[in-house]
């Protein structure tokens, strides 16, 4: 395999000398398409030393990375895996090589700059389910310099109106299921110039993507985009407040996410990488840049909704080597263990989005033999902390800072706190702001400024660093419970609860209390075998369990058994919603 990679590298360098380009561009490309070093054991310090990304003046992921992999592929210098491997579970399958992806995305780019009249810098809303066109249009937007605004299909007409008005998008690209919602609000969207329909068939007032694509020419000159010009805007779903427009430049995700691909996901061009999370989620683009920067295959399974048996079946049926899922999904998977499923190709697992309970990690490991490598990041950032492949994992910890950032725990005045002290997780932005960070909240200098305290960008998440430099998540700043002077992070209590066989899931929030100010309240979803148990006894048993599993003052004084928990579309528990209900109740 190493020989192959070395060959890929040689071929790349050859291609480089033919196409003479900006000298700095050459360096950025090395970073994206570089081969892995000799198989020496992983060293965090070495990774930090080696990681020296350079950002050229101009950068475009489509021409600078994807088209390079096409050349490597054409010369037969990379494994035969496709770039995109899509299945729908009903026997439909799409496999695109880097070359095919290149041809199709150039055609799609011609649709965007032709029939849709998009100019470099224009904004477009993309609301599609997990279909191959989602990836195609992502790349087409890079090629035309279109600023992409992805969103989920679950958006209502009101949400769509809000997004179209806020972003002043020139166009919307979606399918039949959302088309009528768009039509119901378009009269109020002055900037909207076109609607592009990706479904089969035609619809009055809409351009047909399939027709246009068929007839589009396949040669297209990729836009020359400055590294620091906007590439995408993500409306953050957030657990609080109205969605904000988080703007990222071409180099931010495009170069910044090579860290995830290489060191956290441990991907090479021989890997097949599956991320079960939905395309609607703001950070769906992470998969594109992490995987394709390394020449890995992106595997996609279109499922109407997350189904544990279907996921397990695919994981054992297809040669998936690296797997990513949200903690909620892992919680469901370990509850649905199918002994008949064996995962022969699987070699590396990661999770992101929320911390994963140590209990779930242990169960997954007992079953598959693999650790789950957690990481921490936000829509505003690339990878902030990670359990990089090869590093010792401390279950429940988000790992160590990414080499791309200087991460610290700070207090309310922006002072750095020593190990063991809880504060806010922050990234150093002075004197120089890292380029792999969002550029701003679009049109909102106030909110953008509010994210900076002293020399730091503050994440809004509380955590601490231990003596070994590992970071631990405590909770969203607003989620931390303050009971009679004790500060209690919901995650710890939830992790203690889930160790008990009766608990499938839980959400811990504060609840008002006349004496303590606030107390810990747990909303608990029981596992099927325990649903009919006496609630009083069950509560007592779980309280005793938590008192034993963690510091006794953290036990939930109040408890409510529920059928399910409110979640964001990316599967994060909406603690804010539960907490607000709780406080309104009294
Ligand atoms: C997986 O996808 C989700 C949402 O689409 C995203 O937030 C996450 O960052 C992705 N993970 C990786 C490792 O690419
Ligand atoms: C993958 O991880 C191993 C350690 O487990 C390391 O030796 C190897 O270099 C990593 N590969 C890449 C591409 O970073």
UniProtKB/TrEMBL annotation:
Q: According to the UniProt entry, what is the EC number of this protein?
A: 6.2.1.2
Q: Which residues form the signal peptide?
A: 1-17
Presence of keyword Ligase: yes
Transmembrane regions: none
UniProt-listed GO biological process terms: acyl-CoA metabolic process; fatty acid biosynthetic process
- Keyword Lipid metabolism: yes or no? yes
Q: Which UniProt keywords apply?
A: ATP-binding, Fatty acid metabolism, Ligase, Lipid metabolism, Nucleotide-binding, Signal
Q: Which reaction does it catalyse?
A: a medium-chain fatty acid + ATP + CoA = a medium-chain fatty acyl-CoA + AMP + diphosphate
Q: Where is the AMP-binding enzyme C-terminal domain?
A: 492-572
InterPro entries from the entry? Answer: AMP-bd_C, AMP-bd_C_sf, AMP-binding_CS, AMP-dep_synth/lig_dom, ANL_N_sf, Mitochondrial_ACSM
GO CC annotations, alphabetized:
mitochondrial matrix
Pfam families assigned: AMP-binding (PF00501), AMP-binding_C (PF13193)
The protein's GO terms of the molecular function aspect are: ATP binding; fatty-acyl-CoA synthase activity; medium-chain fatty acid-CoA ligase activity; metal ion binding; propionate CoA-transferase activity
Report domain AMP-dependent synthetase/ligase positions. Answer: 77-428
Q: What family is this?
A: Belongs to the ATP-dependent AMP-binding enzyme family.
UniProt-recorded name of the protein: medium-chain acyl-CoA ligase
């Amino acid at each position: 395999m190493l020989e192959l990679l070395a060959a890929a590298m040689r071929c790349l360098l050859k291609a480089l000398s033919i196409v003479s380009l900006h000298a700095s561009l050459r360096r950025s490309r090395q970073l994206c398409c570089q081969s892995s070093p000799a198989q020496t054991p992983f060293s965090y310090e070495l990774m930090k030393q080696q990681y020296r990304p350079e950002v050229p003046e101009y950068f475009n992921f489509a021409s600078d990375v994807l088209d390079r992999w096409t050349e490597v592929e054409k010369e037969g210098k990379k494994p035969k895996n496709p770039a995109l491997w899509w299945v729908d579970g009903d026997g439909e399958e799409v496999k695109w090589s880097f070359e095919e992806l290149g041809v199709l995305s150039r055609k799609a780019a011609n649709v965007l700059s032709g029939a849709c009249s998009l100019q470099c810098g224009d904004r477009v809303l993309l609301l599609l389910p997990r279909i191959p066109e989602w990836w195609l249009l992502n790349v087409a937007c890079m090629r035309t310099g279109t600023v992409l605004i992805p969103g989920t299909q679950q958006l209502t007409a009101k949400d769509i109106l809000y997004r179209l008005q806020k972003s002043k998008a020139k166009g919307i690209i979606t399918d039949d299921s959302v088309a009528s919602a768009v039509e119901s609000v378009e009269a109020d969207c002055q900037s909207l110039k076109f609607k592009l329909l990706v479904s089969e068939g035609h619809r009055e007032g809409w351009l047909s993507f399939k027709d246009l694509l068929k007839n589009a020419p396949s040669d297209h000159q990729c836009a020359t985009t400055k590294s620091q010009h906007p590439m995408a805007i993500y409306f953050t779903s957030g657990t609080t407040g109205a969605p904000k427009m988080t703007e990222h430049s071409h180099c931010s995700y495009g170069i910044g996410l090579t860290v995830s691909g290489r060191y956290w996901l441990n991907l090479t061009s021989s890997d097949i990488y599956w991320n079960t999370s939905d395309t609607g989620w703001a950070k769906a683009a992470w998969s594109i840049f992490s995987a394709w920067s390394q020449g890995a295959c992106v595997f996609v399974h279109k499922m109407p909704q997350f189904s544990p048996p279907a996921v397990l079946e695919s994981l054992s049926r297809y040669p998936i080597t690296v797997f990513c899922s949200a903690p909620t999904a892992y919680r469901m998977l370990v509850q649905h263990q199918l002994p008949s499923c064996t995962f022969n190709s699987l070699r590396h697992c990661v999770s992101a989005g929320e911390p994963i309970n140590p209990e779930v990690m242990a169960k997954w490991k007992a079953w598959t033999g693999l650790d789950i490598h957690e990481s921490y990041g936000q829509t505003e950032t690339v990878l902030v902390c990670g359990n990089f492949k090869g590093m010792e994992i401390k279950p429940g910890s988000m790992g160590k800072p990414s080499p791309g950032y200087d991460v610290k725990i700070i207090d309310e005045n922006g002072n750095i706190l020593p190990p063991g002290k809880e504060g806010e997780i922050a990234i150093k932005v002075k004197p120089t702001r890292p380029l792999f960070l969002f550029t701003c909240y679009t049109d909102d200098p106030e909110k953008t400024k509010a994210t900076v305290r002293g020399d730091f960008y503050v994440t809004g998440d509380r955590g601490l660093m231990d003596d070994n430099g590992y970071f631990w998540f405590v909770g969203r700043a607003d989620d931390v419970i303050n009971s009679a002077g004790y500060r209690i992070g919901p995650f710890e209590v939830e992790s203690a609860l889930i160790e008990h066989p009766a608990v499938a899931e839980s959400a811990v929030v504060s609840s008002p209390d006349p004496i303590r100010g606030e107390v810990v309240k747990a909303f608990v979803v029981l596992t099927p075998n325990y649903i009919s148990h006496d609630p009083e006894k069950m509560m007592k048993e779980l309280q005793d369990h938590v008192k034993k599993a963690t510091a006794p003052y953290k036990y939930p004084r109040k408890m409510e058994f529920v059928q399910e928990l409110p979640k964001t579309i990316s599967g994060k528990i909406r603690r804010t919603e539960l907490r607000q209900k709780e406080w309104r109740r009294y």
